[in-house]
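Support request from a user on the community tier.

User writes: "When I paste my structure tokens into the form, the page sometimes reloads and wipes my input. The last time it worked, I copied everything first. Here is what I submitted, just in case something in the input itself triggers the reload:"
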């Protein structure tokens, strides 16, 4: 498989968890490189459903090494809960390594996240309120605490006391309730003692692995248009969700990467606020009625629309996507005529890229082309030839518009519902 970066080519929630799980069969190591427990990867094994927030999806296959990289922000208490949840489901949590340089998320980050959203009112970002943005803010301001601090009990007690004192003053200015140092320290001390066995220098670990020729799969969270630099700012997350983030978030050099796989739905979705040019309420109602498109982390209904080829082509450019994995094709099985956005129109101007100006993007009207639907179920298809002719034509068309090679088609959440093209 070689060293593969897997990223979302839309606004997140593209079904990366399922694709990662399929690809881990040939991987030796799976690395999570950014984000926090604001993300969720859902994997179905038989009748069991696993929702992973911080632990790489490789944990569901025995013998795979799983790494939480330095680019991730970790809520230690939540991570312990996730480990315990997997243990209860009979999953062995072995071969897990956590970067000593990964930054920590604290209760004051969550409270600040919530208070800032309240303050923004109708201009809110639509965050999960898990404290991810404020944690990355502390990292950039060089005031954050890391895993290496957490596992040093004496050092941690002192620096946490100062951080609680400082942030209580900020919370007081918001009119929020201050945090109790003893309560926070106890919870984090217990979590740190549980996690200490997993903490190491993962940069060195991954360097040796790539030198040995191990196959490494780099697992991204969220999607391209939630990237802090290349997304629909400010309606984005606080990390680099694009392929470059896999290098900075793991410490593996760019010249060690072999390919980039982009995951995209056969239509478009996003959670949270911000422009979504091809949004369509009828598509959203249809998918929600089918029990689809609810967030893995929050349960919030996702906004839905027609496939946006402008966005995915832009994502291909930013990420250097080589291969495409198209998911949720079966979600379109009942539609007679399927639309695809091939350009944006803003007044008299036509755009073939996603503008950085959020106000301009909000004014963009989609330019559509239409494709005939197939109106027959695809969830039982197990090969390319078994797919309806119109489904194959549609898939080839959106891959061509995106600008990368079609590699995988997913027609359901199970491993066996995967077609390699």
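"...and here is what came back when it finally went through:"
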């Amino acid at each position: 498989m070689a060293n593969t970066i897997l990223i979302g080519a839309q606004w997140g929630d593209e079904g990366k968890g399922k694709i990662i799980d399929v690809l881990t069969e040939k991987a030796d190591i799976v690395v999570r490189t950014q984000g926090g427990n604001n993300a969720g990867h859902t994997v179905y094994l038989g009748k069991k459903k696993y929702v992973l927030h911080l632990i790489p999806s490789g944990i569901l296959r025995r013998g795979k090494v799983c790494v939480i990289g330095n680019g991730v922000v970790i809520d230690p208490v939540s991570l312990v809960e996730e480990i315990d949840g997997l243990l209860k489901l009979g999953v062995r949590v072995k071969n897990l390594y956590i970067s000593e340089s990964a930054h920590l998320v604290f209760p004051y980050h969550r409270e600040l996240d919530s208070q800032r959203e309240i303050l923004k009112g109708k201009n809110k970002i639509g965050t999960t309120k898990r404290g991810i943005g404020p944690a990355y803010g502390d990292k950039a301001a060089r005031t954050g605490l890391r895993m290496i601090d957490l596992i040093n009990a004496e050092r941690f007690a002192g620096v946490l006391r100062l951080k609680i004192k400082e942030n209580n003053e900020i919370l007081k200015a918001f009119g929020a309730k201050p945090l109790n140092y003893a309560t926070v320290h106890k919870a984090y001390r217990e979590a740190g003692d549980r996690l200490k066995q997993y903490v190491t220098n993962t940069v060195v670990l991954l360097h040796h692995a790539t030198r040995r020729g191990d196959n490494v799969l780099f697992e991204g969270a969220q999607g391209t248009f939630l990237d802090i630099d290349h997304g629909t700012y400010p309606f984005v997350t606080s990390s680099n969700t694009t392929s470059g983030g896999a290098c900075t978030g793991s410490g593996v050099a760019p010249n060690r990467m072999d390919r980039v796989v982009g995951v995209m739905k056969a239509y478009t979705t996003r959670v949270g606020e911000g422009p979504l040019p091809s949004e369509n309420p009828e598509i959203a109602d249809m998918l929600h009625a089918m029990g689809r498109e609810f967030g893995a982390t929050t349960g919030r209904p996702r906004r839905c629309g027609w496939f946006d080829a402008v966005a995915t082509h832009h994502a291909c450019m930013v990420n250097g996507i080589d291969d495409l994995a198209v998911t949720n094709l079966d979600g379109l099985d009942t539609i007679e005529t399927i639309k695809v956005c091939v350009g944006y129109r803003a007044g008299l101007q036509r755009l073939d890229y996603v503008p950085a100006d959020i106000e301009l993007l909000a004014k963009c009207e989609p330019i559509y082309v239409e494709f005939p639907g197939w109106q027959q179920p695809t969830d039982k298809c197990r090969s390319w030839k078994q797919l309806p002719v119109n489904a194959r034509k549609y898939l080839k068309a959106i891959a061509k518009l995106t600008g990368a090679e079609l590699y995988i088609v997913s027609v359901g959440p199970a491993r066996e519902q995967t077609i390699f093209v």
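Agent notes: The reload is a front-end session timeout and is unrelated to the input. The chain has 13 helices and 20 strands. The mean pLDDT is 94. Escalated to web team.
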